[in-house]
Write a structure and sequence with these properties.
This protein is of the alpha+beta class. Among the domains are: 92 residues, no CATH class; 63 residues, Dna Ligase, domain 1; 141 residues, no CATH class; 173 residues, no CATH class. It has 28 helices and 23 strands.
């Protein structure tokens, strides 16, 4: 259904709109969130709809542009229920919020808090006395047959009896206006970070409406989450509570949200390899030693958390974690094994269980569900197949839910046969005709349409019960069909909950930090983080060097044509770096080195590795850093067209060099001088030393004929030509060029500068290893500085042949390159893989 811009009479003095007969409701069955049965705007929507009537097409285009920019700049992506080959996709956000009045929300919040309390009580029973199973309120086959029930967790109660620190429920409104629970999320509820992201964007899009409707903010929810987790931590005397957020990594569907929440809550984002269990305690591996962890906010499936006690094939978990949980030395949020109560097959049992455990009726019912493992329920599902939705009873995703009414005879017969063979694997569920809400049609200006909508709400455990987020994650179906599943495949909306009380401003940060709250920068840096920062520095410098080399070769080939080839030393260096394929050196070969990421030494391959490494530590980058990286990826995609002109290729190389210069500037001016910055900068200097040392050594050893401007390519490659001209105001000559690029330790693009910088960075790192790391580098610098450079002053470069002085300096440069590679390997052994004996003793101390 499409709503025209002026679908009611103009509003005067903010009174209720008049006739809304021009609203076409033929496409909207069931409940409509914004309009009543008489096609009049509902009271809590009237003011907002009146505001929409004042917006022009240009206003709508600006609004959509603002949303798109915010999502792109924040890097908001999502990949829910998509295969890993499909990659991430941008977060889709509709500008119109879902508006819920205060009195209705109070009923919703009360029901959700009750349901979270019920789920927590059920988990306490299932992993404790199991009275529900003994009394038949839950079928044993349904619980024990579900892989989400973790037998090793039986008899392992969590701290303070809290199993569910965060609970979420999917809600749908039926045609009569009642809310129903369609799914319980008790494993690792996701979406609350996206809900906050939606709020921050849409509240800035409609700031006046946001304040005039007195919308409740979301900060109090996250403040309660912070406070609850801190309260659960039980640090020893003298310790500060240490809370980490455990993620499965960048390939997780909700990795953006993990980064977002970790930053918001102030918790380090870690992966399984960052944690280790010693005795009955969990520690975070940091460069400064092991740091005890008191609370783990779990953002990965519980069965993957411990390969020793749970799933042995897990590569994401922490061996021995369950032993630490059993000893009460670490709190898991949510507790291990909590996913069992998220099964859809349990919906039909909640009313009786609620009466039993809480002594009160279930305030918000689940959608009617029949588990086919019971004979009466199986017979009912078979008899009413056409009016139900058939789903898998377990967490397996190899069976896609189907509506019986949409099945052809062959499909129906196949499903019934599967149900007969294994009835306990299936459920039948009543289908709810979803409510509708206004949504903007992309690219349609002021035209609106209605879409099926559902809502995900969240509750957090506090000392006084469960607190429900005053809002949630609203989704509308992208295709407009009421048979769609908005939660899986829809477009997000902000959720505005009105308040009839003054809004209190709640800040997440402590207003008055104590001295004990002060921390030194980088105290929580893990080996994984510094390794990725180190390689990000190397890949960034590799991208810069390859881009400069390709620009030199491509420019000279285009300028010289077929008369003069590019510098042979430059081509030799490109071959050594595996940048050139097997084809003869020509424009196709150079373009392949530019954009073919299947070529190991290509610029495109280096860019892909640079961005991939950065994405592993996404939480470390400021927005400006990330925008530069995304811009390089966007430019790389734009040059993949079949017919790429040389001018376009040079433009791309120039943009890449500008981007790498920007990233180097960010690292110099924006990053705190902690160990993370030190490793990133060390990586850059090692890579630059290898690259320049190989280039100059190859140039010195080459005996082919040279033109009078052959030295210029070395100055361009090292970005030192301006420095040279400002010093000498003459054409490049052999001795001053060598002095500038090799011996001068004040030139940030020279060999001497790289070695001096590395020696400065290695001094504090040597304190961690207990032994010096700079021996071979210091010797290489001394040998380079000790050479008699006067011997180079008499070289006639235009007729130069290989001479003893050139070979000697080239050998010293190659020694420095080998020392840099050796240093990289030593850093890897000491700080990343911890395979050296001395390093291992430090970690276990």
């Amino acid at each position: 259904m499409i709503l025209q811009k002026r679908f009611w009479f103009p509003v005067r003095n903010r009174a209720m709109p008049g006739d809304a007969s021009r609203v076409d409701r033929r496409g909207a069955r069931g409940y409509h969130e914004a309009l009543d049965a008489q096609r009049m705007p509902r009271p809590h929507w009237a003011h907002f709809l009146a505001h929409l009537e004042t917006l022009s097409n240009d206003d709508w285009h600006r609004h959509q542009g603002f949303i798109d920019r915010q999502i792109q700049e924040n890097g908001a992506t999502f990949n829910l229920h998509a295969d890993h080959n499909s990659g991430t996709r941008p977060w889709a956000l509709d500008p119109l919020p879902l508006i819920i009045p205060a009195d209705e929300w109070r009923r919703i919040a009360s029901a959700i808090a009750q349901r979270a309390t019920l789920m927590n009580a059920v988990l306490a029973d299932l992993y404790g006395p199991q009275r529900l199973l003994a009394e038949g309120l839950l079928p044993a086959a349904l619980v024990y047959g579900d892989p989400r029930f973790l037998f090793p967790c039986v008899g392992v109660p969590p701290a303070d009896g809290t199993w569910l620190h965060v609970y979420a429920a999917d809600l749908a409104r039926s045609p009569d206006g009642r809310w129903w629970v369609t799914a319980d999320r008790t494993q690792t509820p996701s979406g609350m970070g996206f809900a906050l992201e939606n709020r921050q964007i849409i509240s800035r899009l409609f700031p006046e409406m946001y304040h005039e409707l007195n919308v409740r903010p979301l900060n109090s929810f996250f403040h309660d989450l912070q406070d609850s987790l801190t309260r659960q931590a039980k640090p020893a005397r003298g310790e500060q509570p240490h809370i980490v957020m455990l993620t499965a990594g960048q390939h997780d569907d909700s990795y953006f949200e993990h980064v977002y929440l970790a930053r918001l809550l102030g918790f380090p984002l870690v992966e399984g390899q960052d944690l280790t269990v010693r005795g009955e305690e969990v520690f975070l591996r940091t460069l400064q030693g092991l740091k005890r962890v008191h609370v783990i906010v779990r953002r990965q499936f519980d069965a993957l958390c411990d390969p020793l006690a749970l799933r042995g094939d897990s590569v994401q978990g922490i061996p021995g974690l369950l032993n630490a949980v059993r000893a009460g030395r670490v709190v898991m949020a949510n507790a291990l094994g909590s996913g069992i109560t998220g099964g859809a097959a349990l919906h039909g049992f909640w009313p009786a269980i609620c009466e039993k455990l809480l002594g009160e009726p279930l305030a918000m019912p689940s959608v009617a569900t029949w588990w086919c493992g019971e004979k009466p329920a199986y017979d009912f599902v078979c008899e009413h197949f056409s009016s139900l939705t058939i789903k898998s009873a377990g967490p397996e995703k190899n069976f896609i839910p189907v509506r019986g009414s949409e099945c052809d005879p062959a499909t129906r017969a196949h499903i019934l046969a599967c149900m007969a063979a294994c009835p306990q694997a299936f459920i039948g569920q009543e289908y709810i005709e979803l409510a509708h809400t206004p949504a903007r049609r992309p690219g349609s200006g002021s035209l609106l349409r209605t879409r099926p909508v559902d809502l995900q709400v969240y509750a957090v455990a506090t000392g006084s019960g469960y607190h429900v987020m005053p809002g949630g994650l609203t989704r509308v179906a992208a295709d407009g069909s009421s048979t769609g599943r908005p939660m899986q495949h829809g477009i997000a909306k902000d959720t505005w909950v009105g308040s009839d009380l003054p809004i209190a401003n709640v800040r997440l940060l402590k207003p008055r930090p104590d001295p004990a709250d002060l921390v030194h920068s980088g105290a929580n840096l893990t080996s994984r983080v510094v390794e990725n920062l180190f390689w990000f520095g190397r890949y960034s410098e590799r991208v810069d060097g390859r881009a400069r080399l390709l620009r030199i070769v491509l420019t000279r080939r285009l300028e010289a044509g077929a008369v003069l080839q590019p510098e042979e030393a430059a081509l030799t260096l490109a071959r050594q770096l595996h940048m050139l394929g097997d084809a003869p050196v020509g424009l196709p070969c150079l373009l392949q080195a530019l954009r073919d990421d299947s070529l190991p030494g290509s610029l495109a391959c280096a860019i892909q590795k640079q961005v991939s490494t950065a994405s592993h530590v996404r939480e470390r980058w400021a927005l400006d850093h990330w925008l530069v990286l995304k811009g390089v990826l966007h430019d790389l995609a734009s040059i993949q067209r079949p017919h790429l002109s040389p001018d376009a290729a040079l433009d791309f190389l120039n943009s890449v060099i500008r981007a790498t210069s920007s990233l180097a500037g960010f690292a110099m001016d924006n990053m705190t001088r902690d160990d993370g910055w030190r490793f990133l900068t060390t990586g850059r200097h090692i890579e630059r030393l290898e690259f320049l040392g190989s280039a100059i050594a190859g140039f010195l050893k080459q005996e082919s004929n040279r033109g009078e401007n052959s030295l210029e390519w070395l100055l361009e490659l090292s970005d030192s030509i301006i420095t040279y001209r400002s010093r000498y105001s003459r054409t490049p000559e052999f001795l001053p060029v060598l002095d500038l690029l090799v011996r001068d330790i004040s030139n940030p693009r020279g060999i001497g500068f790289q070695i001096e910088a590395l020696l400065n960075h290695l001094a504090p790192l040597s304190a961690y290893t207990g032994e010096p790391l700079d021996g071979s580098l210091r010797e290489a610098l001394q040998s380079i500085q000790a050479l008699d450079y006067a011997r180079f002053s008499s070289v006639d470069f235009s007729r130069r042949q290989s001479c003893l002085a050139n070979i000697e300096l080239a050998n010293h440069l190659e020694t420095a390159v080998c020392a840099a590679r050796t240093l990289s390997d030593r850093l890897d052994r000491h700080f990343f893989t911890h395979t050296s004996d001395r390093s291992r003793s430090v970690w276990t101390a």
